[in-house]
Amino acid sequence: MPTAHQEILTEALQNILGDKIIHLQAQYGELTITISANDNFTVGRTLRDDPALKFDTLIDLCGIDYFTYGEELSIKHNLRGKRFGVIYHLLSVEKNQRLRVRVLAEDDELPAVDSVTDIWPVANWFEREAFDLYGIVFTGHPDLRRILTDYGFIGNPFRKDFPITGYVEMRYDAEQKRVVYQPVSIEPREITPLVIREEHYGDCES
Q: Cα–Cα–Cα angle for 159, 84, 117, nearest 5°?
């Protein structure tokens, strides 16, 4: 059940953002709004600058892949069949309020959202991380390049259709005296762990 504090914030968000909010949800003591990628920068600036909101701090930003999200959950959270999204965790220090913002990318083949580095400069490396791991392009980012994987890496390792072994492996070649890339030599396999439990394990004592 929303607290009085959340109800005030909910009313302010609805009055200020209006139909830019695709979905609003209060769960586990936190508010989440879902917005379109086309409104990302405008909404972000409003969330920071409007005197009734003042979300001056970006705590975290991460990419997300809804590839295997169930149809029932997609309908519940109003994802509208979109695969990739970006999640922002915002804090208003002055008003002691938190907000989660979910932005859905329109194109699954080339997911893109506007960069918010001009609003919250701390987003710089967060956006690079989401670009590296999910392949989400942040339009207007000042230096969008990989940050965790190496320059020769192929693909985006946090996408749900990316193989656990990857596509290539890297090793040092003593003859060539340099690092080389080659196809993965590990054969994919499923491993089922053997679990041995004592008889009557977990039974409640009478």
A: 105
| 174 within a domain of the structure (yes/no) | no
* pTM of the predicted structure, to 2 decimals: 0.80
Domain assignment present for 123: yes
**How many alpha carbons lie under 13 Å from residue 4 in its C-beta half-sphere?**
0
Q: Please tell me the distance from the alpha carbon of residue 141 to that of residue 146, in angstroms, as a whole number.
A: 13
The CA-to-CA distance between both ends of the chain, in Å, stands at 38
Per-residue pLDDT tens over the stretch 116-165:
999 999 999 999 999 999 999 999 999 999 999 887 788 899 999 888 77
Residue 165 included in any domain: no
Query: Where in the sequence is the domain holding 109, given as residue range(s)?
Result: 4-147
Residue 46: give its domain's CATH number.
3.30.460.80
Within 18-166, residue ranges assigned H as helices are: 40-49, 71-76, 123-134
Count up the domains in the chain and report the number. 1
Measure the CA–CA gap between 179 and 98, rounded to whole angstroms: 46
d(CA 44, CA 115): 10
Residue type, 186: I
Strands (E), 71-183: 84-92, 97-104, 112-114, 137-139, 168-173, 178-183
Task: Please indicate, yes or no, if residue 194 is contained in any of the structural domains.
Answer: no
